[in-house]
Each structure stands twice: as structure tokens, then as C-alpha cells.
Amino acid sequence: MRACLFLAAAVFCAAAAQAQSTSTYRNPLPVRLPGGAPAQNCADPAVLRDPRAATPTWYLYCTTDPVSHAEREPGEQGGWKFRLMPIYRSQDLVHWDYVADAFADRPPPAAPKAGLWAPEPHYHDGRYWLYYTITDVVDVASPEPGCDNDSAIGVAVADSPAGPWRASPKPVVPPRRVDGATSGCKFDWTFDPDVVTDTDGTRYLYYGSYGGGIFVQRLAADGLSVEGEPRQVGTSWRYEGAEVVRHDGMWYLFASATDCCAGPLTGYALHVGRAVSPLGPFLDRHGEDMAAVRAGGTPVLPQNGNRWTGPGHNTVFQDAAGQWWTMYHAIDLNEPFFAPGLTRRVALLDRVDWVGGWPIVAGGGGPSDELLPAPAATADAPARPPVRVHGSGADLHLLWRDDFAKPPAPPWRWIRDPGTWQAGARGLAWSTQPGDLHVDTNSAPLLARPLPAGDVRIETRVRLDAPDDCCASNAQAGLVALGDDDNYVKLVVLAGRGLHQVEFAKEQKPVPAGYPRYGNTVAGTPAGADGWTWLRLDVRRAGGLERWTAWSSQDGRDWVGGGTWTHQLGAGARLALAAMGGGGRAATFGPVTVSRLGPAFGAAPGLQAGARRARDATSARP
């Protein structure tokens, strides 16, 4: 009897300990390899809840990549072992255990060294489907001999979410040549599949990436090909990693912008738009189209200056009790690489709430790095506490303002000759020069003056004369906060390759060998060709570290957040205006103001990005 009581108590205590361990979680997620060793990489994560499991069970699929420092294999890139889309299983959405790799070898039509990226699991008609990117194909109708970038979408089928997987020998979406190209190694990027099912049972496949844009097309009934005309839903050179979900009768496209894999200077970030149909168009909060040249998309998960940078390529799903979540990858600034050039991307999890018809991730505060309530593993789990919404407004005290009605005078001074310029009622104007401020090219003219110490807000408005088809060479105009030409943050309206966006970039030097010096992310949509775009930089300083946060606006009232870079520009930092590249594009700057920045308050970015009116102005002139 005593033994039975002891055994029952042990079982009860073990169950209680497990329940307690999964009542909270903290990023990154514990993803375990055979034997319990931690997996140190899960890029492009995708989650599938097994509809046939007796108890809630989820499967996690990751892109082809190294997963551990301990796994080395001669013959692979740099001696690293690349697992071909590893699969993990969980019953609580927090702890994940390795099950298998999707493939032991690259299946046809993949070339021997092709990447198998961005797995998309899908359950349909009693079987499990796994769609994926093939970066280089062979033995299809129109490959280019010797070309390694004729990418395609492949598919495999299994009777279990863990496989074994039987790959179709033909791609679902074959390589697509760049418009007008009939030969040569010129292909659009056919990457990053995502599958949704409409209310009438029609299935759609999203695919594409920076090179050519994101498209949606109807899946054939057999799931092995697409049919009908493709429709573009994401513009070229702006988005990749489409993830589409339906909520309250609307369709939401999550997509990632900028470079996924620049180590500690990765500025990858999630943006969102919504549509009444899975075919789009997907419009952001301001009605801007994510497929437009002046790219729409509301930032929904920008980096926030903590240990995580480059959050993106997400999957969105519900836990056992119906709460929405997103899993995505990000880079740990403490360990950004497996080796220089091979970025390490770990799996993070954050809650999604729907406010006013729009998703808010992690309360609008960016990727989380604190202990949080875990997802529900059962349908009868206790209700989650209300989401904590992060502040975005602040009290302001105006320090100075310059409207450039008169020529700029000290403490303003020119760094490098701008050529012809003019000050007047419309502000300060000069033309972009064929120079740049990028790594070892430091030829752009700047108009600079010292920045005050402490926490400040910098605002201006800029008008860049750049039509929709501009420019073969990037034209840009905006704000720079710099210590010197190699250490700065930059917030500019940028036009290049027919894409217009608000870029927020960072450069630093020195850096360790093999590390990048420059990284960028993006904010909101710039104004039209004949309009003004407002730019804002907030800096908060603590312990020698500066957190620079970007905002942009089309009217100076409704602001869109654009992420945070950390830097150490120091006490001698200067504010500069820049207009560069794209030869001869007119740039005009309106008033520039610098204000003391008080504590944050208010709602999340995208919900209420306002600020109290600056008050107690000491001077309207510099």
C-alpha cells in the first residue's frame, strides 16, 4: 500500500512538474536533437497540427541548414552537416523533439547540391503534403544547363506528418524565366511556398520572393501542379516568405522584408496586409497595396533593440484553446553565426492578438525576451491573461527647430560639397549627387550639426523627385545620425529598381573578421511622387548603448514604426541631412526639429503612434 501511495505521489508530482514547466516559456524555444542535445537552428519554421492525433500534437518543419555545432560532415559547406528539412514534434508548442529529416538525400528534380528551403506542411484528403523550395532543378522541361538558380516549388506526400516522404519527380511550379528572357541564367525567384484552403474548398499556392515578387495561383485538384493565371500579391525586391491565414472573414498576408541572413546586422522584419479574397490585393492599415511600386505593408514584428534581431519568415496558428500564435526565426546577437557567412537562426514564439481587425504580435513590442504564459496544450486550459500593449507615444520638449527659410548657418556645416543648393519658403533643396555613404564609399555630401545629449526625437519631412520607375542607381534622401562616415544610422526615402520604400540602416566599424558592416530594415510606405514623407528618429541612451527607433508618416500625424537599431555613436554624434545617388534627383527638406524625449506611453505601433505636442519651446531657430 505504501509503495502504491509513493508511486501515485511520484506520478502526480511528475505530472505537476511537467504542467508547471509548460505554463510559461521564454525564447528561444527548446528544440532538441536525438539524445536531448539542443538544436541551434530552425530557419523558416512551419507548424502543422496533426488532425488525426488523439491528443493535441504539432509538428515543426525547418529549412535545410546546420542544426548543431557538434554536427560536422566532410564535403558539405565549410564542413557543416546540412540536415534536409528536419522535423520535430511537440504536445505543448514549447518543447520540441526531433523525429526525422524529411529526406536522406535530395530527391529529383533537385540538383545534387540544391537547397531545400522553406517547408510548408499541409493536410488534405487523408494525406500529408510537404511543399518546399528547390533552389536548383534538373531534368525538367526548361532548365538552363550549368545554371544553379533555376528555382522551383517541389512537393512530397506521406501517410504520416513525420514521413517517409515520397517526392513528386516534377515541380509544382517549374522555373520561371525573367520577363523577356528566352535563354541564359535569368530566372525569377520561385521560393517559399504557402498553401491555404478557401471556404469553398479551393486550394491556393503562394510562392515567389524578392526576384520577381510574390504570386498566388490555384492548386490543381491533385496538388501536384498549379492552374489558372498567377496573380501578384507582393512587389519585387521587397517581400518573401508569404504566410496567409484567414480570420473573421478576412485574409491576412504576412511577409518578410530585407536580408534574412546578415548575422548581427540582419534587419529582416514582418509586415502584414489584408484582403477580402485569398487572391488579394492585400492592403495595409493605410490602404497601401503590398504589390505596389511604393510598397505597402504594416510592420507587425520589427526588431526592438533587445538580443533578437531580424525576426521573420513566420508561421501563424492556433493553440489547443484557440489562441493565435506565430513562430518565426531570429538571430541572437550573442551568437549570430555558425561561422562567418553562415547565419544561425533560432525558433521564437510570440502571441498574436486581433485588435480592430489587425494582428498585434507580442503586444506590439517586438520579439520577446522575457518569461511569458505558454500556449494552451488542451482545449480546457485556463484563459490566457490579457495582452500587455507596449507604449509608443512620449512627452516632448522642443529644443530647436530650423525651417531653412534662410541659408543654413553654424552650427550647421557641410561635409563634402553638395553642389548647388537653395533655401527658401519651401525648405532646403539640393539634387542627389552620384555618391554614397556605404562601407568604403564615403562620398555623399551631408549637412550636419551636433546632436544634444540624452534622449531626443528628430523629425523632418522630405520630398524626393523620383517617379515610380526610378532608378537604375538608388536615389535617397533623409536623416543620418553619425559618429563618422563608418558609424551611423540612416533613415531615408529610397527609390531604386522601380521600388520605393523607407529604409532604416546601420553601419558600424570596426567589426570582427567576416562580420558585415552594413545592415538595413524598412518602415512604412513613402508618399507619392509629388508628396512629402515625414521621418522620425527616436534615440534613448543608457549605459553607453543607444537605441535608435525609426518612424515614417505620409501626413505627419499617423506614424508607422520601423524597428530599432542599437549603436554607440557617442557624445560627439551629429545629425545630418543627406541626398545621394541616382544622379540629379531633386530633394527638398522641410522643417527639422529636435525635441527632448520623455518616457513612453500609449498603444502599440500601428495602433496609436502619436505623441503629445511639443511644448515649452525655447527657440524656433537653431
Automatic annotation (TrEMBL):
Gene3D superfamilies with a match to the protein in the record: 2.60.120.200, Glycosyl hydrolase domain, family 43
Signal peptide (from-to): 1-19
Record-marked site positions (Important for catalytic activity, responsible for pKa modulation of the active site Glu and correct orientation of both the proton donor and substrate): D192
Claim: Hydrolase is one of the keywords in the record: yes
GO BP of this protein: carbohydrate metabolic process
Transmembrane feature ranges: none
Superkingdom field: Bacteria
MF terms in GO: hydrolase activity, hydrolyzing O-glycosyl compounds
Keyword line: Glycosidase, Hydrolase, Signal
NAD listed as a keyword: no
Xref: SUPFAM superfamilies: Arabinanase/levansucrase/invertase, Concanavalin A-like lectins/glucanases
Family: Belongs to the glycosyl hydrolase 43 family.
Name of this chain's protein: Arabinan endo-1,5-alpha-L-arabinosidase
Species in which this protein is naturally found: Pseudoduganella flava
